[in-house]
Specification:
Number of strands: 10
Bound molecules: ligand C2E, magnesium ion
Distance between the termini: 42 Å
Number of helices: 11
Oligomer: single chain
Strand order of the largest sheet: 1-2-4-5-6-7-8-9
Largest sheet: 8 strands, mixed, barrel
Strand content: 15-25%
Radius of gyration: 19 Å
Length: 273
């Protein structure tokens, strides 16, 4: 059903909608068992300091190897997990697994490293979410500032539910990033109202470096971040040209294929050597 070969067959809009619907139903059912069947795993994308090149941390990215259909991209199954509520269990697993990996890196001597973890809205809306993270960090004896939770602007709409959770995490010392910055319901109000430490400039802007308008957007984001004392990281950096521009504009950190694709856990220590 998901095989790429099928895409070549011309389908009427109605047929393709039904195929997509069937695909969603099958995937949703299989996702339910994916954790216990060990089909989910994480890859880690390195984040580098823009001037020194030093690895400052990694972002954990979820993967699903379906037994029959192969690799399913997160853009496809994370929304399904969100719709069904499965994302709570999956998100807990991600958080715990990523933190365990971080602990291994710290124990190996790379004590400065940070781990970025993507969150979903429903995770953040659990009243005891801050307590859950605190438990994981204290069990593993991880310094809270070494964990960076990534949220998006759309999650901030539910201020009353989300703000107290973020404040509690902030007070505990957990780092908070605003992911995909510039693509969502951007409101400058969010930046001062919420306890944000870092902005991640969305890769769509980075990929259009060379176009004046997109460069202006990046310059503006960085200028604003500097005024608010926020760290800025650029995602999706693929070319030297993009890197040079970001260096000139004093972006702080970078991640992208120019440095490395996301790598399996087993290669993390190798990457640090
Ligand atoms: P994101 O958090 O914005 O992650 C960045 C995405 O860009 C990742 O895609 C990464 O593999 C990709 N990327 C990194 N560098 C480059 C580059 O140089 N060029 C290009 N073209 N792409 C690059 P991925 O792994 O497919 O993840 C997609 C999205 O799925 C993530 O976007 C995030 O929103 C979501 N996601 C991933 N893991 C999790 C998770 O554990 N929990 C939740 N809730 N969402 C997740
Ligand atoms: Mg992210
Ligand atoms: Mg992003
Ligand atoms: Mg994204």
């Amino acid at each position: 059903l998901l095989n790429k070969k099928h895409e070549k067959i011309a389908l009427s809009p109605l047929q393709s909608t039904r195929m997509e619907e069937m695909e969603r139903i099958v995937l949703t059912k299989d996702l339910y068992y994916a954790i216990e069947r060990n089909e989910l795993y994480l890859e880690y994308q390195p984040q580098h300091h823009i001037d020194t090149n030093k690895v400052i941390g990694f972002e954990a990215l979820i993967r699903w190897k379906h037994p029959i259909l192969g690799e399913i991209p997160p853009a496809k199954f994370v929304p399904l997990a969100e719709k069904t509520g499965l994302i709570i269990r999956i998100g807990n697993w991600v958080l715990k697994t990523a933190c365990e990996e971080l602990k291994r890196l710290h124990t190996a001597g790379y004590t400065w490293l940070r781990m970025g973890v993507n969150l979903s809205a429903s995770q953040l809306k659990q009243p005891d979410f801050a307590a859950q993270i605190k438990n994981i960090l204290s069990d593993l004896e991880i310094w809270p500032s070494k964990v960076d939770i990534e949220i998006t602007e759309s999650m901030m709409i539910e201020v009353e539910r989300v703000l107290p959770v973020l404040q509690e995490l902030h007070e505990y010392g957990v780092s908070i990033s605003l992911d995909d910055f510039g693509t969502g319901y951007s409101s400058l109000g969010y930046l001062t109202k919420f306890p944000i430490n870092q902005i991640k400039i969305d890769q769509s802007f980075i990929q259009r470096i060379g176009h004046l308008e997109d460069e202006m957007v990046i310059k503006t984001i960085i200028a604003m971040a500097q005024i608010l004392h926020l760290n800025v990281i650029a995602e999706g950096v693929e070319t030297e040209e993009q890197l040079t521009f970001l260096q000139q504009e004093q972006c702080n950190e970078v991640q992208g294929y120019l440095y490395s694709k996301p790598i399996p856990a087993a290669q993390l220590l190798n990457y640090m050597d």
